[in-house]
Amino acid sequence: MKKDLGNYRKSYEKSALMEDAISDNPMELFQKWFHEIEKAGSVDEPNAMTISTLGLDGFPKGRIVLLKRYTYEGFIFYTNYSSEKGKAIDNNPKVCLSFFWPAMERQVIIKGTVSKIAENMSDGYFESRPTGSKLGAIASNQSEVIPSRDVLENKLKKLEAQYEQKEISRPANWGGYLVAPISIEFWQGRPNRLHDRIRYTLGEDYNWKIERLAP
After folding, report:
1. Are 188 and 106 in contact (CB under 8 A)?
2. Among 77, 78, 110, CA closest to 94
3. 188-207 pLDDT, tens per residue?
4. Distance (Å, rounded) from C-alpha 27 to C-alpha 33?
5. I want to staple 180 with a disulfide (CB 3.0 to 4.6 A). Which of 52, 74, 120, 176 is the partner?
6. Strand partners, 101
7. Which tens digit of pLDDT belongs to each residue from 63-103?
């Protein structure tokens, strides 16, 4: 099997990223870009991001998760702590997040370290989830091998009956992570592949160093 993709080309011409139009803090620029993506309405899930971890097998692995909150401290998402990614994070808390918003010809790449958020924050978010999502979190032993789809469906049916008149509490192995950034790179597509790349790097004095990178 062979397919040549060499003719897939696009000229990026929608915007620019210049030093005189950015904040000293990368989280403020991230907020600005995120709001612009939301306003444009051209991305189904603008909060979808790739998180890359170094697995216990020594291989890096990326997968899509959903950003649920961001603050000056960093980026918060929720998952099963016992999953493959959870085990990878426990072993090596250094991760990379990336957002790709093709409609605006933009990327954001974040390097950072991960820590679990406070349990009451995880409880609060879990409580806000739809019933089906709550039960799904209990039903799935994420990343474990299962014999068939029926196993999941049958387990969910039993849980639906079990919790029909009961409050659904957050499982202890499910909750939130905070990615505290040490580096955030903003990429804006430009014509002739001379893209804009601005990188913020956190210094020992907790101030951000701003640099332009060659595309």
Report:
1. yes
2. 110
3. 999 999 999 999 999 999 99
4. 10
5. 74
6. 106
7. 999 999 999 999 999 999 999 999 999 999 999 999 999 99
Radius of gyration of the chain (CA): 20
Give the pLDDT confidence score for residue 78 in this predicted structure: 98
| Angle formed by the axes of helices 131-139 and 149-162, nearest 10° | 120
Instruction: Write the CB contacts of 124 (distance below 8 Å, at least 6 apart in sequence).
Output: none
Query: What does each C-alpha distance from 43 to 47, 102, 104, 134 come to in angstroms?
Result: 9, 8, 9, 26
Which residues, including other chains, have CB under 8 Å from residue 13's CB and lie 6 or more apart? 105, 189, 190, 191
3-class secondary structure, 120: helix
**Confidence at residue 170, expressed as pLDDT on a 0 to 100 scale:** 97
- 85 CB burial (10 A radius; 0-12, 13-18, 19+): buried
Q: Please, what's the b/e burial string for 62-81 (b: 16 or more CB within 10 A of its CB; e: otherwise)?
A: eeebebebbeeebbbbbbbb
**Looking at the annotation, which residues are catalytic?**
193
**187 phi/psi in degrees, rounded to 5:** -120, 125
107 Cβ partners below 8 Å, 6+ apart? 98, 99, 100, 101, 185, 186, 187
What's the rounded Cα separation, in Å, for the pair 50 and 61?
Answer: 10
